[in-house]
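Hi team,

As requested, here is the filled-out complex form for the manganese (II) ion run. I kept the field names the same as last time so the parser does not choke. Let me know if anything looks off before we queue the next batch.

— J.
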Amino acid sequence: MATLAEPMRAQLPVVGSAHPFLVTRVFCVGRNYAAHAREMGADVREPPFFFMKPSVAVVDASRPTSISYPPKTNDLQHEVELVVAIGTGGRDLDPARALEHVYGYAIGLDMTRRDLQRHAKDKGQPWEFAKSFLGSAPIGAIHKVSEVGHLREGAISLSVNGQVRQSSNLSQMTWSVAECLAQLSAYDALLPGDLLMTGTPEGVGKVVRGDVMRGQIAGLADLAVAIAP
Ligand code: MN
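And here is what came back:
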């Protein structure tokens, strides 16, 4: 008979703190940059929508790391995103006060099995397995708001093997962090330890085994994630 091994709990280091950030849930915003919404064939004026990844999909990418190429895909794609770390929970947040619930920020990758996502969209099926596999959320160290302030603008970019693929500015987000938190918290209460991946700019694309992705957001430490050979 099987015995119960120690359950896994994802955690991320916090810059300047000995205490890690324990991850509760991972929420993600779909299509939050107009140019990316257009490249995905969507209406840029749609309100934000949300999906989730399991917390164990988070990979600590505070140092250069690698992830395995996931099964059942031939089109693994990168999406570089600003990640918001929730410190205090709440529901129905007022957009004017929503940022008071933010503990810090990080850079992350919403890795996506795009072929599975396209298939699911075509069939009207859930996207879940396109987005929620183990290793699908490499995230850098959390930078506390008390250290870096709130990130409303600044360059966001991703290169693969030294070649720039995604390059935009946080100011191009259709819905601000505060607006996203307000809308998300109307659907479900936010809890301490929740993460919100705030959507990706245009330029998403395919990666293969051996590729090295480098993500940058002004004010945060860089992210370096390789796809294992
Ligand atoms: Mn995304």
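Two things worth flagging: The chain has a mean pLDDT of 95. Helices lie at 34-39, 114-123, 128-131, 145-148, 177-187.

Thanks,
J.
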